[in-house]
Design a protein that fits this description.
single chain; 480 residues; alpha+beta; 8-stranded mixed sheet
Length: 480
């Protein structure tokens, strides 16, 4: 992983090349002054002003490219207080659709990436006023089972005869890819089409809510709070009320019925009362058959790994810490491997001091966004002095499960750690504390450099009941 200093030096050189008239003006002014020209001050001052922008430009470029969080990034907006399990996502709006179209649930049976081919020459690309330019919005081929009645939308005991299947290609905003992986979408269906295929329009922000990526709470008229995250039946009924009312105001992830128009609040209250009478079970984090919807391997992003580490950083007391995204908001800027988002993170300092929230504009990899319904956690490098934190996307992706982590024992047995962040996290910390880099999702203990931690690693893996498999015989790795 590159250091901030190396990135800054590179940007200084880049800025100096872009603003070369500045240093050139300084040289010209100095040369004319030595020759006694009265007007020598003109190119000198112009060059001085232009050269002053070199470090400014370099610092701005380095900050935008390097995911470093400092004290200056502490969140200053205190208008909304985030709970620890809150996640708010402001995604691009979907079309409202015709009034006769019905809002229903659709399950994703299959998904595959049809096309994503942006211009790879530019570092950052902006589209003012456009959150979903086609160039940076993946085209995904989906096979959907669309439910047409309330019973089927509840998921349990569905009448499959009332559902129909449709296959098509849709542009999926990057921040909404987790809805596809989770397998639950909110769609509009035109009931007027009696013959031929019926038109189906996914509502991507609503799908993120239905999938459970975005949390949702409701405060009723008596001031009681209910968490309705991953309760698709109730969420769909609430969405229909909101659609009929032309939209409602949210405070973060919370709908406060006391602030709504009386008729709309009464309809919401009736839904809440029905839910209390017949509580709905939470839907699974991801619907069965995730392997047929797994887009992660085809999406842009960073390779998952146990991560690299600087021995100097390790010797000085640097540690890894975990943070959690609380808020993501789309912007008009994109990079090839992901959108640039305005984010809020909650960071727990390693010294035990209270957690704090940081607001930072970051490029978030698309493969991580595709599993956002599973986890919103990120791994940070903590500066030994505690003054700054750097997001480590390789470790973050491995902890999130974009690739299967494995441990190869000294005798060759393989232990798969897929879906076990409780094991992966302490292994990452063990390697970091010993200054050992492993830029791969496979931790091979047969390497000589891993001998100091091999016993501890195996104790940690076996203590958590993970069973190993005998791997096929392969040439022993080089001792290094």
């Amino acid at each position: 992983m590159r250091s901030y200093t190396s990135v800054l030096v590179g940007k200084l050189i880049f800025a100096a090349v872009c603003l070369f008239p500045g240093p050139l003006g300084l040289l010209l002014g100095f040369s004319l002054w030595r020759e006694g020209e009265d007007w020598a001050w003109i190119p000198f001052v112009a060059g001085l002003v232009c050269s002053a922008f070199v470090p400014v430009m370099a610092l701005k470029l380095a900050r935008s490219e390097f995911p470093r969080i400092t004290r200056r990034d502490r969140a200053k907006d205190e208008s909304f207080s985030y709970e620890d399990d809150t996640f708010v996502m402001w995604a691009p709006r979907s079309p409202k659709g015709h009034a006769r179209e019905r809002l229903v649930r659709a399950d994703v049976l299959e998904a595959s990436l049809a096309r994503y081919d942006p211009d790879r020459e530019g570092t950052f690309t902006s589209y003012p006023g456009n959150y979903t330019p086609e160039e940076f919005t993946p085209l995904v081929r989906l096979k959907l089972r669309v439910y047409s009645d309330e019973e089927a939308e509840g998921g349990e005991g569905a009448d499959t005869a009332a559902a129909f299947e449709v296959t098509g290609q849709w542009r999926v905003p990057s921040v909404c890819l987790s809805a596809v992986t989770a397998g639950r979408l909110a769609v509009l269906v035109d009931p007027a089409a009696q013959q031929g295929p019926r038109r189906v329009t996914p509502l991507w922000p609503s799908s993120v809510l239905l999938a459970g990526t975005r949390t949702c709470r409701v405060i009723d008229l008596e001031g009681r709070t209910a968490d309705v995250t991953r309760r698709p039946g109730r969420l769909l009924r609430q969405m229909r009320i909101s659609r009929a009312a032309g939209g409602i105001e949210l405070a973060g992830d919370t709908i406060d019925l006391r602030r709504l128009e009386a008729h709309t609040a009464a309809r919401y209250a009736a839904v809440a009362e029905g839910d209390r009478a017949r509580p709905e079970e939470r839907a699974p984090v991801t619907e069965p058959g995730e392997e047929s919807r797994w887009l992660v391997d085809d999406l842009e992003g960073g390779a998952a790994a146990f991560g690299s580490v600087s021995r100097r950083w390790s010797r000085r007391g640097g540690v890894l810490v975990r943070a959690r995204f609380l808020n993501m908001r789309s912007t008009y800027t994109f990079q090839v491997y992901g959108p640039v988002l305005d984010t809020v993170l909650r960071i727990q300092p390693p010294d035990g001091t209270p957690a704090f929230d940081a607001a930072r504009r970051l490029t978030v990899p698309m493969d991580y966004l595709a599993v956002l319904h599973r986890t919103r956690e990120v791994v940070l490098h903590a500066d030994p002095k505690g003054g700054s934190y750097v997001i480590d996307w390789a470790r973050t992706n491995l902890l999130a499960g974009t690739a299967a982590a494995k441990v190869v024992a000294p005798e060759g047995r393989e232990f798969t750690l897929a879906g076990r962040p409780d094991v992966i996290w302490p292994l990452m910390n063990l390697l970091a504390s010993h200054g050992l880099s492993n830029p791969s999702p496979v931790l091979d203990l047969r390497h000589r450099r891993m001998s100091a931690v091999a016993g501890t690693v195996m104790d940690m893996v076996l203590a958590r009941g993970i069973e190993g498999e005998t791997a096929p015989r392969q040439p022993q790795p080089e001792n290094r």
